[in-house]
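Figure caption, in words: inputs first, then the predicted bound structure.
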Amino acid sequence: MADKLPPKQRTKIPRQAMPEQPALERARNFAEVNLGLDAAVAEKEAQRCLTCADPKCSHGCPVGVQVREVVDLVRDGDYLRAAAKLREDNVLPAVTGRVCPQENQCEGACILGKRFAPLAIGHIERFVADYERATGEIGLPEPASPTGKKVAVVGSGPAGLSCAGDLTLKGHEVTVMEALHELGGVLVYGIPEFRLPKEIVRNEIENMRKMGVNFETNVVVGKSVTIDQLMNDEGYDAVFIATGAGLPKFLNLPGEHLGGVYSANEFLTRVNLMKAYDPEHYDSPVYTCRDADVVVIGGGNTAMDAVRSALRLGAKSASIIYRRGEAEMPARKEEQHHARDEGVTFLTMHNPLQFLGNDQGLLTGVEVQQMELGEPDGSGRARPIPIAGSEKVVPASVAIVAVGTGANPLVQSSTPEINTNKWGYIQADDDNLRTSKRGVFAGGDIVSGAATVILAMGAGRTAAASIHEYLTTGDWPTAE
Amino acid sequence: MYRILEARFLAPDVKLLRLEAPRVAKMRQPGQFVIVRVHDQGERIPLTIADSDPETGSVTIVVQGVGKTTKMINQLDEGDALLDVVGPLGAASEVEDFGTSVVIGGGVGTAIAYPTAVAMKQAGNHVISILGARNRQLVILEEEVRATSDELFVMTDDGSGGEQGFVTTKLQQLLDDKREINHVLAIGPVPMMKAVAEVTRPAGIPTVVSLNPIMVDGTGMCGGCRVLVGGETKFACVDGPEFDAHLVDFETLVQRNRMYRDQERAGLCQLEMAHPKVGPQHHP
Ligand SMILES: Cc1cc2nc3c(=O)[nH]c(=O)nc-3n(C[C@H](O)[C@H](O)[C@H](O)COP(=O)(O)OP(=O)(O)OC[C@H]3O[C@@H](n4cnc5c(N)ncnc54)[C@H](O)[C@@H]3O)c2cc1C
Ligand SMILES: Cc1cc2nc3c(=O)[nH]c(=O)nc-3n(C[C@H](O)[C@H](O)[C@H](O)COP(=O)(O)OP(=O)(O)OC[C@H]3O[C@@H](n4cnc5c(N)ncnc54)[C@H](O)[C@@H]3O)c2cc1C
Ligand code: SF4
Ligand code: SF4
Ligand code: FES
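Bound structure (FE2/S2 (inorganic) cluster present):
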């Protein structure tokens, strides 16, 4: 237990660095990059917190994690109580501590950041969650007595999991239905092992099983069973749709059908879910990256994950092609730094024009064009404009398109009563996540469009509260 | 786990398996498929649902052993199980009373075409079925198809069964004989489907083929199954697998399916080394 220092001294402590695998070593393996803080370092970092009367950090967190209280407990060395405090608002702290874009959320709001480096809230959160897991003493709350109500949750990503957890605690019988053979959504098929070990996700799911959540894999709702059948034939009283934004967007450029051109979803699914990084033991390969030139088009987290995976699969060169500047990239800053340190090349201010191939139908290169920034566009970001005559060919035998995802229409098209917006996302009330169909709620990426783990989790919890209210009152107010 | 209720060879390397998969059995329509995984380290592969029985909750698949996973499936027997079976996936075949409908099955494509032939017959069509194979031994489901067809022609490359020639030889003959044909469904190897498309194109006969790109999830999530149809990108797992034969870019399909050839060969070698019995010589 450490004493509280006077504020002046607290700000003298530098932000504690996260130990990581050496860049060139980790660039060739799939083990986690960040190694985690040890207790002494975590306590020292916690010392930096100013224990603000009005903690801006909590306002910056989409689910309002009580950062100040958690950090206080860490400084006192009471890690298990810190974990319990964290879990009051965040059911997947080991995940969010690793993948939240903290710089735009809690840490972005932290008052320390005005003059010094913000508190390393994500790293502390991860420390606490990992400590709790290592002790095996996860304070699983006792579910309330059974209510006799049944809820189906469609999709097992962060939105579905958090909703299922909360509803089970309220005593409802919950079954999560997942299209794939493994549970966890993007956490298992998208975000790679080196950023989020799958063991952590599996562990959280195991905890949920212990709490009484039921899971059914290999069920594509809309195909294997419809929402109407769930409600009319299988006796579900409510349904929560959390199917994510999993439809890959392509560029619709010439040559996109060539062998070696992937969507990021396919590439990452092959690598993460189907374990293409272990070809000796697993049967789903990716087209060979070893000694190959690999380019990834895009600047988000998905693009960083793809390019760094390619590097780990033995790529000779791994480059990002992005049509704006590095500052405009939506990826977490930490991932951009990690990627650069590992040897990823950034070809910013460039846009692809076409994919070039050989007579075998295999990719040989990508023709790109240089861009310059013009006036801000609708999103407030400067609009990239092509520079005439700047075309050139970047050689590549693998190209990964990571330019965003859309709404998968399977559920909506089989349940026309559920209203969608013009992009195909489900319309749900902001406050209670009710859809236009009685008893059906929706949240996470399938409502917001591709967003973040913590927002999806927040939506899952909002939905759980709203579903609980519906199941206890039976009220379904129609819009005035 | 999805238990295997019945398993028997229909031809060398072609095995029929009936699986316990109640949700799939209840929802399935002709033209749809499942994606299966045999074991924890295996790949996910698509297989058409040849038949289903909602009462017993079972679906039938017919599998041709061409590579590691399909050969592994063909080693399984009644009482064994598949790790994962998900479906039914894909769009259902468009079935209506077209008048005279020709259903063409090449090799294991017959198993894929069979359920649609049944549906066509039930919809009131005059069904002419043409089955093609390299030789007599490789003709599968002949009796089943005969029972649902008004006319049946069997074509073999070597003339060891039915008539000697390709399925397109027969189709051309029917056209030359001025038989009225209102609809053609052709399922089999890509060169066969392409040839059928070329036979019916001049006559302008609506023709449907079932495409077999490499798939991963089968739900529209990966885009690996994309095919070019009429110059547009389509995902075969959700928009297909059946498409208008006259609009399909077969060349791109063939090229995309070749992409993993080296890795597939390596996988098969691995399997054959581990289980020397696997391979074409392993027949009942
Ligand atoms: C590569 C990648 C990296 C990312 N990195 C970060 C990051 O660092 N930080 C961050 O905060 N966010 C990140 N994100 C975004 C974040 O992962 C998502 O916003 C979040 O997972 C959305 O959660 P969700 O529960 O709404 O949906 P998902 O996680 O997408 O889960 C949806 C689940 O529903 C299943 N499903 C879909 N349709 C059906 C159906 N019809 N029937 C049954 N099941 C169905 C899907 O298979 C899937 O498992 C990343 C996303 C990707 C793709
Ligand atoms: C919608 C759909 C329905 C199908 N239905 C059936 C069916 O009912 N019965 C059946 O036996 N097969 C069917 N197939 C083909 C089957 O999925 C492939 O044979 C299987 O994936 C091959 O896997 P493997 O590991 O055994 O062989 P691999 O080692 O992966 O490949 C061996 C050989 O098969 C070729 N091949 C690989 N993938 C495919 C593919 N998707 N389609 C065609 N050839 C491929 C390769 O080029 C290679 O020459 C279907 C395919 C699709 C897309
Ligand atoms: S959940 Fe995310 S945003 Fe909230 S405090 Fe934790 S790391 Fe920060
Ligand atoms: S805003 Fe920063 S300094 Fe203030 S309580 Fe939160 S973490 Fe501590
Ligand atoms: S198989 Fe993945 S989108 Fe069709």
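Chain B has a mean pLDDT of 89.
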